[in-house]
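Write out this protein's structure.
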Amino acid sequence: MGVTIHDVARAAGVSVASASRALSGRRRVTPEVAERVARAVAELGYQPNAVAKALRDQTTGTIGMVVPGIGNPFFTTIVEAVERELQNSGTDLLLCASQYSPQVEARRLETLLARRVDGLIISPCDIEASVPAVLDAARRVPLVQVDRYIEGGGADWVGVDDEAGVTLAAEHVIAGGARSVSFVGSRLVSSSARLRLSGFERTAARAGVEVLPPLLGEFTLEWGVEAGRKLLDAGRLPDAVVCANDEIAVGLVRSLRLGGVRVPEDVAVVGFDDVGHATMCDPPLSTVRQPVEEMAAEAVRLLGQVKADDPRPAQRIAIAPRLVVRQTSRPVTAGVAE
């Protein structure tokens, strides 16, 4: 049998009630009692009974998180950042992937709610189809969206300023001499996909450069390779391509180089996210860096303030991104992050 609260109280020379108060922190005890209990806990290796605590406090000490897919390096990075933030408060993370399916996403949310999670963090896979399940979950537990969000609001959101990020990328390649530009991204089923394309189109129109038709597929390396082949087959290459994420950009660079195109001499390429793929690209990828640690910290902080079925207007926190210039684009100014 493991060490119990009775053992801790006996070793500390205090009552069980005093030991319990010292451990829970809900009621104050004298500094001397707190120190004796802490010393007894350390010496005995006492681990509180999580189930009993959950029944007593009506909490489970767990947060559920649903992302579209953990195979995408960006989502892996944001999950790890959220988990680090939760560890600071002793909270555990239960992770699910929606597999980019609104139906699977709805089932994953129900699974987490059945496990009585204290709150949810979700990156909705579909800006429209995810609405019913996300709003239903938000009525039942505190919920914060991260990176992506559903149409019409209704739930708090923390993420990067997608339009500002793609504007940085487009302005960078245009300042580097591009007179014809193209965008390679994902089908417009998520808020990120829509905002990055619209931001690119507005920036290019404002600059007066020629804009080739966008190529829209998936946020994957495989789609980047295919998009590169489509550009090669078209018979005319743009001066620069802005990609909706790094996986697309890495695949595109690979495809262009296999086709005999020099990057960035013939075609400049810029990605979005700044995940591990970016520095492993050959040549290293210029990209827009998402402030993942800051996003995770804000999401966890906001989750602590949200209440289930909160009537107040949903909060939206857009964090500024940063352009990182490496070797797939032409450097044009000093003072840009390297």
